[in-house]
User: Which sequence fits this backbone?
């Protein structure tokens, strides 16, 4: 019986953690044009940021080689 109680408490904690998690991405996204898509937007932004950084690094390397 005690195990069930622990599970219930554990289930309540994630819910409390979800609220701030959703609020964080919103504050992190100043240009949040899609407030409804709070979770998907940050994820794509991070992926795009990584890709952009990789491309920028490649471009600078090419420029150095040309120089």
Assistant:
């Amino acid at each position: 019986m005690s195990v069930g109680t622990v599970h219930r408490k554990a289930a309540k904690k994630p819910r409390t953690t979800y609220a701030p998690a959703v609020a964080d991405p919103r504050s992190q996204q100043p240009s949040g044009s899609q407030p409804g898509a709070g979770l998907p937007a940050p994820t794509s932004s991070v992926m795009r940021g990584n890709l952009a950084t990789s491309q920028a690094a490649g471009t600078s390397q090419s420029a150095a080689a040309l120089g």
